[in-house]
C-alpha cells in the first residue's frame, strides 16, 4: 500500500506543479501584453495550421508594422483575423492570408488593429477549443474535483 501511496503522492505533486507553473507563466505573459488566440481557419495554413494558438503582442505599435509582419485585427465585434501585412498605405494596412489568392477586402486601421503575432504553437488550440463545449467543461470540472479530493487525501496521508 505504501508503494501505491508514493506513486499517488508523486503524481499529485507533478500535476499540481505543472498546473501552478502554467498558471504563473500565463499570468506573466498576460501582464506583458501578450494575448492568446485560437486559429480556426486555414487562411494562414503553412505558418498557422488550424488549431494553433497565436501569441499576439498587444503592445506592438501600429506605426511599427512592416510588410511581411503577421498581425491580428478585428473585422467585427465577434470576429478576429490574423493575416500577413502585404502593403502599408496612408489609409491603412492591406493584409492577406498566406493561403488566400486575394487580399482582404478591408484595410486594417489603428482602430481595429490588435497586435503583432510573436509566435505560435501548432495544434494546441484544439485543447482550448474543446474547453468551450459542454463535454470539455464537464471534463475540466471532473478533473478539478478529482484534484481537490486527491489533495485532501494527500494531506491526510502526510499527517
Strand content: 25-35%
Secondary-structure element order, N to C = HEEEEEEHH
Strand order of the main beta sheet, please?
A: 1-2-6-3-4-5
- The whole-angstrom Rg is 21 Å
Mean pLDDT: 86
What is the number of strand segments? 6
Poorly predicted runs of 5 or more residues: none
Shape: elongated
SS content category: alpha+beta
Give the CA-CA distance, first to last residue.
16 Å
State the assembly state of the protein chains: single chain
Helical content stands at: 25-40%
What's the main sheet like?
A: 6 strands, antiparallel
Number of helices: 3
Structure description:
This protein is α+β, with helices and mostly antiparallel strands and 159 residues long. The chain contains 3 helices and 6 strands. It has helices at residues 2-31, 125-130, 134-158; strands spanning 34-38, 53-57, 70-76, 79-88, 93-96, 113-121. Strands 1-2-6-3-4-5 form a 6-stranded antiparallel sheet. β4 (79-88) and β5 form a beta hairpin. α1 (2-31) crosses α3. The protein is elongated and about 70 Å long. The model has no long low-confidence stretch (mean pLDDT 86).
Highlighted features:
159 residues; alpha+beta; 6-stranded antiparallel sheet; 38% helix
Please outline the helices and strands.
Blueprint: H1 2-31, E1 34-38, E2 53-57, E3 70-76, E4 79-88, E5 93-96, E6 113-121, H2 125-130, H3 134-158
Antiparallel strand pairs: 1-2, 2-6, 3-4, 3-6, 4-5
Helix pairs in contact: 1-3
